[in-house]
Amino acid sequence: MNKVLTINGGQPLKGTVAVRGAKNLVPKAMVAALLGDSPSVLRNVPEIKDVDVVTGLLNIHGVTVDKDSVTGDLTLNPAAAKSASSKEIDAYAGDSRIPILFCGPLMHTIGEAFIPDLGGCRIGDRPIDYHLNVLREFGAVVDKAPNGITISARNGLHGAKLHLPFPSVGATEQVLLTAVKAHGVTELKNAAMEPEIMDLISVLQKMGAIINVRSERTLVIEGVTQLRGYDHTALPDRNEGASWASAALATGGDILVQGADQKDLSAFLNTYRKLGGEFDVVGDGIRFYHPGGELNPLVVETDVHPGFMTDWQQPLVVALTQAQGVSIVHETVYENRFGFTDALVRMGATIQLHRECLGSNPCRFGQRDFLHSAVITGRAPLHGADFVIPDLRGGFSHVIAALAAEGTSNASGIELINRGYEHFLDKLQGLGADVELRDAAL
Ligand code: UD1
Questions:
Q1: Which DSSP string corresponds to 298-355?
Q2: What total of structural domains would you count in the chain?
Q3: Confidence category of residue 126, pLDDT binned at 50, 70, 90
Q4: If both were cysteines, with which of 108, 134, 324, 336 could 124 make a disulfide (CB 3.0 to 4.6 Å apart)?
C-alpha cells in the first residue's frame, strides 16, 4: 500500500535531533570490510536504507553482517566471501549506486564482479565512465552483460597513473578501494577530498593500507598484499546536519543538531551566517536558529570540497525563498539538480531556472542545455500543495517547504527519504511538526 505524508505547515521546528554516521561514508566502509582477512567493526551506523542495501549485497557475497542489538554497531566478517549470481545481485539493481564500489574489493577477493544497472537519486545522468576508465587502467576487463556489467581481474590488478576529469567522490573511492591491494604504486590526480573520503582513507589505513594525501588533490597509494579488519567510528553526517540547519531557518525555528561537526561544515556555516541564520557551536553539536527579522539574499555556488557541497543546496533554496530580495544559486556539480524547484513554485515560491552559469566561475554545464542556475526572489509566502518526493535531498526540501507553508500538503514517495535520513518522521515529530503518515487510497 502506498503511503502519503500529510503535513500541516506554519509551525517552526524546535528541539533537538541527533545525527549519526555519514550516509556517504558508512556504505563504503562496509564495502571496504571485504578487503580484510579478519572481521571489521563499524560504529555509529545509522538505520538508513542504504545500509540495508549494502548489507544485502555483502550477505549474498558470503560476508556476514551482525548488528549489535544495543549499540547498532556492525561486525562484518568476510571469511567466507564468494561470488554471487547475477540474478541475486540484480535484485538490488535500481536501489543504490553503491554496487559500483564493490568492483575493486570483489576483484581482489574472488576475481570478478557483476554490477547491476545502478539507481540512486535522479539528478542528471550520473554516468559511471570515470569508474570504468580507472578500473581498465588497473588492468580490469569490463564486459557488458544483460542488466549490468561484468568486471574481472583475469590478468591481475596493477598500480596506475590516473587523472580524473572531475574530482568525483565515487571515482576517487573506486581508486582507493582498488589501489590498496593492486600490485605497485597508484597516483591519482584531481582526486575528491571530501571529509567522507578522508574518513575512508582512515578506515583503509587501519586495515594496513599505505595512502599518502599530497597537496593539489593528489593521492599516492602503495599497494600491499594483505589487509586486516578495522574498528572504526564513522564520522557524523554533515549533510543531514546542514539539512536540519536549513529547516530551522526556513520554518523560523531553533534546532540543536547533536553530533554536527563544525570543521566539516565550515563552508555551510559561512553561508548560513551571511544569510542571517545564527548558530552556536556547543559541546555536543551545533544549535541552528532563526534570530528573527529578515533573512538576506545570497549568491551561492556549489562546488567540490572544501566548497559549498551540492547536497546542501536544495534545503538552502527553501530558506532562500524566505529571504528578502534576489538570490542566485549556481549548481556546478550536477547538471540537473533543480527539478525539485517545480513543487516549490507550486507552493508559491518565485524561482526561475537558467541555462547560463550565473556565478563567478563558468562550469562544465555552461555551454550546454542544462538548467543549472536558479534565481530565487523572496520573501514568498508559501502555501500547501501535493507533491511526489523526487529524490533524497529534493524530497527533504519539499517537506521543509510544506512545514514552512500555510495550510496542508500531501507528499507521496516519502520512503525515498529513508535512504539517507535516519528516523526521519520521528525526528520531524520530535521537532513539533504536525505530520501524519497514512495509507493512500489507490
Ligand atoms: C557522492 C555523494 C553525493 C554527492 C556527490 C558529490 C555518495 C553516496 N553520494 O555521489 O551525495 O552529491 O558525491 O559530492 O557518497 N561523474 C561522471 N562520471 C562518473 C562519475 C561521476 O561524469 O563516472 C560526474 C557526475 O555525473 C557528477 C560529478 O561527476 O556530475 C560528481 O559526481 P560524484 O562526485 O562521482 O558523485 P557520487 O560519488 O555519485
A1: -EEEB-STTSB-GGGHHHHHHHHTTBSEEEEEE--S-TT--TTHHHHHHTT-EEEEES
A2: 2
A3: low
A4: 336
